[in-house]
Amino acid sequence: MVEIITLGGLELRFLQSGDQTGGCLDMFEMTVQPNARMPVAHHHESWEETIYGLAGVTTFVVGGRDIDIGPGDSVFIPRGVVHAFRNDTQAATSCLCVLTPGVLGPGYFRELAALLAAGAPDPARMKAIMLRHGLVPAPAA
Among residues 90, 5, 14, 97, which one has the least CA distance to residue 53? Predict the structure, then answer.
């Protein structure tokens, strides 16, 4: 079964599957509405992420550099590299996010969605949720 989680201008279709080595790959398809942005730029301490463009163009900011990802494009985000995304277009975009090893799970997205649904989130609570799930918020610019 596919779990769909909505938070702000994002809709996530979360998939999880085992790989042939017994590890786990976490995958989710992310639909980004026009003018939506990642709530907090961050990096991962224990996994890497590869983003594959599916529809439209989503701009990922990886290590301070803008990278436009559309159909057929991809970007690899190593551990420890600060990243974020935004959709500056007038149409929804989508991409597939693959985390290796798979350690995040949908619990993070459920908690973040509940926090954002309650209104303007308390930055300390958002940071605590992120840290508990292995995401490290980037310092404010």
Answer: 97
